[in-house]
Write a structure and sequence with these properties.
Oligomer: homodimer
Strand content of chain A: under 5%
Helix content of chain A: over 70%
Largest interface: A-B, 27 and 28 residues
Number of strands of chain A: 0
Structural class of chain A: mainly alpha
Shape of chain A: elongated
Low-confidence stretches of chain A: none
Mean pLDDT of chain A: 94
Distance between the termini of chain A: 58 Å
DNA sequence: GATATTTTAGAGGCATTATTCTAGAATAAC
DNA sequence: GTTATTCTAGAATAATGCCTCTAAAATATC
């Protein structure tokens, strides 16, 4: 009952996503988010308590989207496929990729000021950590600090580095990127794979 | 002649550097920069036309500091040494490294609004580009788009990625980082070195 | 159709923070 | 010592942008 909503929570998140991808979080204003959607500024506050909550939810939604596929690849494929998940995901989600990979979490929200936001954040880092540990144990054998650092490097840091330069230009990463990621993977992980 | 300055331009830049390293550019206020130095806020405007100029000059000064050593290594050492310049520089300049490597240029200034700022920015990118091209020509032989991308990857992207995770925690990068950078270098550059 | 509820719509208040302004202090040149 | 100059000192001003508030609109329930 009541007047049916014209603008959903997701629509505001989509609008924010576009603006963040284009200009970065610091240049996003509540007025711009609303205008980009043709909504009045006040309507934003019917869906989100504050600008910070809006940005936090955009961040969490985007990490969710990325991480789900990554963890799946980590469990059900070999290491190379998991390492290549990043460039593939980026090609399929250019806008979201710019949001996720060109900015740090602190640009979106500084403290967790709700139980829900805090829980979701913690769950994401815990799941990622667990996935990496499980993969390391299965692939390398031991989960020393060094071996964990090594798998994190080849599965996350290097793919991120390879893709970043292209995202900054607004381009999709070329095939060469996949090739370099794979070479790096084999070099650092050695004969273990 | 005139009253001798109590606070120099560099002192304001140092103060800004500390604050940016700790909290990021978006949380730096002119009042905080001045207070951090024990200066009145108005004095900032005796040295800089605006907050944006202050941040722009900090960025340029920091890039200068990094790039000088990097280009030197690129010309006078082998590729591995050039790739290892990043972790070494980071260890020697932890605060400046957090400024340079945890933030993008756009967080400091968006447009070049002075001839001087524009010229310095352009010179920096031109010098870097020239250095990378020269190195690629000398080491690989040809300077195709692919070979240039490859050298950029192993000399800049990978070292940056390897170091970033540690900088976020405020730690100096461990030796393992150098080892991974070197492995990656040899793997991607192949037998050419 | 009356009422309760939820939303649109957008103007206005309010807080933060960049910038300017005035007064006075410190120094060099004469 | 006087003057011109440059700076400190910090209060006053102005702009930006988050958030709130009131009015009206749209719908479900009775």
């Amino acid at each position: 009952m009541g007047r049916p909503p014209k603008f959903s929570q997701d629509q505001f998140l989509d609008s924010t996503c576009r603006l963040v991808a284009r200009h970065g979080p610091q240049f996003v204003t509540v007025a711009a988010v609303a205008e980009n959607l043709g909504a009045p500024t006040g309507s934003v506050y019917h869906r989100f308590r504050s600008k910070e909550e809006l940005l936090a939810r955009l961040w969490l939604r985007t990490v969710d989207l990325f991480q789900e596929g990554f963890l799946d690849a980590l469990q059900n494929s070999d290491g190379v496929a998991a390492a290549l998940h990043t460039p593939r995901w980026v090609r399929a989600h250019l806008t979201e990729a710019r949001v996720l990979l060109l900015h740090r979490r602190e640009e979106f929200f500084s403290r967790e000021w709700t139980d829900e936001i805090r829980d979701r954040t913690e769950r994401l880092t815990r799941d990622l950590d667990a996935g990496l540990r499980e993969f390391t144990a299965r692939t390398v054998g031991c989960v020393s600090a060094a071996s964990l650092r090594r798998t994190t490097f080849v599965l996350m840091d290097v793919p991120y580095a390879a893709v970043k330069r292209h995202l900054e230009h607004g381009d999709a990463p070329p095939d060469l990127v996949d090739e370099m990621i794979e070479s790096t993977y084999r070099a650092v992980m050695g004969r273990l794979t």
